[in-house]
């Protein structure tokens, strides 16, 4: 069997390796989409109101969508089309990028990086590469589809600007020192694209592990096919795809810096019976040298977490291939 699911054709049943045990299956997949997830208009004429909406969303949901965000709609469509085409390229071309080595700056994998040892596979292919500084990485990117480098470099520049705009709003909203999120804490910029082919029985399998994003902040462009779900008050709820809206998720580092004021949501992806789903994630994260700790301005008596380096956090987060956010947070949490 081909490893990459994007190379499969005429899939009539879910292979055994992709069928999760009963307690981990999504089962019923007609989850309600949640209309409460904040949708924030960044072109609002009252910037202080908008900042308050962002802070409230980070505290109550840990996820929100933005419109009038400044990333050109044509660029969003072009980038989505580039990725849809990329996953349709012949297997021999894509094989050049296949790797399960986390240190490889540009890599294509299927399911997770633990493909060779995991008990069950997730129904997805994932293509990830670094984007910043552009000159350092662009030569490692694909040159097919032919416009890949041109379009994706512009997309990475525009989405990075938006991420900094949101971080600046958070900085103002939390009354932190200006430029708090610039520099080492947000230096790593990665694009991560998920592709899920239609799945004959979405109730049996998952498109992505249940997880929380370990980085600083995530930007996500969904396509028009639903699949992303967050766990809210013990229930899975869908994040509605809204054409040209962009989803934002504060990562675990932002939760720590906010001194536990923000929520980093637990989320997962379910598959779709009829349609392929492609999503583009853009992650900002700390450099390996960066020291993470609750912002002093937000600490009244004792900080909720002790200081750590990002590699220390990731080591705890990924211990036993678990990606366990609660375990990692508790490991660095100060005892009261
Ligand atoms: O593809 C999605 O909808 C979610 C992706 C995601 O959660 C991630 O890449 O961390
Ligand atoms: Fe995620």
From TrEMBL:
Q: Report the protein name in the record.
A: Fe2OG dioxygenase domain-containing protein
| Signal sequence annotation | none
The GO annotation for biological process reads: coumarin biosynthetic process; response to molecule of fungal origin
Alphabetical keyword list = Iron, Metal-binding, Oxidoreductase, Vitamin C
Q: Which organism is it from?
A: Solanum commersonii (Commerson's wild potato)
User: What molecular functions are annotated in GO for this chain?
Assistant: 2-oxoglutarate-dependent dioxygenase activity; L-ascorbic acid binding; metal ion binding
Q: Which domain of life is it from?
A: Eukaryota
Q: Which residues cross the membrane?
A: none
State the InterPro entries in the record: DIOX_N, IPNS-like_FE2OG_OXY, IPNS-like_sf, Oxoglu/Fe-dep_dioxygenase_dom, Plant_2OG-oxidoreductases
Q: Show the PROSITE patterns listed in the entry.
A: FE2OG_OXY
Provide the Fe2OG dioxygenase domain boundaries.
187-286
């Amino acid at each position: 069997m081909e490893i990459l699911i994007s190379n499969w054709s005429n899939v009539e049943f879910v292979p055994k390796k992709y069928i999760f045990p009963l307690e981990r299956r999504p089962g019923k997949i007609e989850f309600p989409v949640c209309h409460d997830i904040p949708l924030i208009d960044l072109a609002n004429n009252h910037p202080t109101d908008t900042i308050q909406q962002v802070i409230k969303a980070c505290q109550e949901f840990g996820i929100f969508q933005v419109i009038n965000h400044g990333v050109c709609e044509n660029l969003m469509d072009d980038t989505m089309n580039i990725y849809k085409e990329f996953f349709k390229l012949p297997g021999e071309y894509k094989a050049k990028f296949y790797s399960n080595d986390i240190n490889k700056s540009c890599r294509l994998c299927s399911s997770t990086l633990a493909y060779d040892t995991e008990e069950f596979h997730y129904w997805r292919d994932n293509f990830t590469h670094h984007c910043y500084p552009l000159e350092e990485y662009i030569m490692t990117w694909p040159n097919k589809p032919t416009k890949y480098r041109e379009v994706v470099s512009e997309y990475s520049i525009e989405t990075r600007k938006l991420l900094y705009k949101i971080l600046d709003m958070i900085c103002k909203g939390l009354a932190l020192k200006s430029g708090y999120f610039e520099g080492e804490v947000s230096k790593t910029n990665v694009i991560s694209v998920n592709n899920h082919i239609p799945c004959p029985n979405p109730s049996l399998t998952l498109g992505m592990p249940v997880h929380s994003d370990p980085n600083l902040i995530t930007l996500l462009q969904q396509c028009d096919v639903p699949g992303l779900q967050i766990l809210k008050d013990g229930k899975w709820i869908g994040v509605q795809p809204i054409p040209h809206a962009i989803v934002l998720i504060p990562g675990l580092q932002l939760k720590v810096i906010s001194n536990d004021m923000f929520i980093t949501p637990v989320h997962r992806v379910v598959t779709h019976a009829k349609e392929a789903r492609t999503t583009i994630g853009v992650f900002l994260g700390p450099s390996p040298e960066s020291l993470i700790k609750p912002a002093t301005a937000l600490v009244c008596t004792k900080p909720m977490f002790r200081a750590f380096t990002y590699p220390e956090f990731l080591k705890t987060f990924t211990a036993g291939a678990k990606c366990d956010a609660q375990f990692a947070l508790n490991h660095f949490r100060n005892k009261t």
